[in-house]
Description:
The chain has one domain: ibrinogen binding protein from staphylococcus aureus fold (Roll). The protein contains 2 helices and 14 strands; from the N terminus they run βαβββββββαββββββ. The chain has helices spanning 7-14, 92-100, and strands at 3-4, 22-27, 33-46, 49-50, 56-57, 60-71, 75-80, 83-86, 107-113, 116-121, 126-130, 142-147, 153-157, 162-164. The chain starts with a strand and ends with a strand.
Amino acid sequence: xxxxxxxxxxxxLLQPLIGQPIWGVARSHGSFFIxxxxxxxxxLTFPARRFxxxxxxxxxxxxxxxxxxxxxxxxxRIQVDKRATSDLDEDHAHMQAVMSTLDGAIVDAIDLDDxxxxxxxxNSGQLKLGPAEYVSPGDVGxxxxxxxxxxxxxxxxxxxxxxxx
Length: 165
């Protein structure tokens, strides 16, 4: 069953992430990105596709971690040492280069302030997620979703509510 949870409950659900390595940090489209944590849990297979335009995409096999983070309708910022990128960065090569500096870093701390998480890493890096002004409370979707090891998820919806289920 899915329901709204408090910040302290969400903090408890995310606490086991501490000590886990982050890997596979990658941008998809726009400001959407995904990251995995811990050991590989499964390998997802996406079949080859052929589009009406004639373009083909080969089969892809994508590993997913015990924990996965998906960020979409959200402001975010990644900083490692003096290098930084954010959802506003239009240089996608730079964005991916900074994201890749997190690969292998260990989660040292999670601060969940007003449902806006900051993950801090062993390489002095940090990932901060925040509400986006371009999302109105009536919009449907999630700002971020953490897929938990037990198959459930913790998310912050576009209305600012923390949802677990």
